[in-house]
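Hey, I'm writing a tutorial for new members on how sequence and structure tokens pair up, and I'd like a real worked example in the thread rather than a made-up one. If someone can provide the structure for the chain below, I'll link this post from the tutorial.
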Amino acid sequence: MANLQDKFKQRAALEDAYSNFVEPYVNQVMEIHLNSFLETPPVPVMFAGLGCVSGCLLLTVVYCLWMRRRP
């Protein structure tokens, strides 16, 4: 019975430690990342990804044409 009470005390202490120390830190970090994400415009990131995809497609087309013309 004492072992079970010790486990309950340990569980309560762990939950208190999480709610007092870990949870505020996680919330602060999430708030910082959310604010920094909202401040930067997502449009340049979209165009950078579009440029990368179009570059890969262009290289694929050039490679296909080059392989087609080889004897």
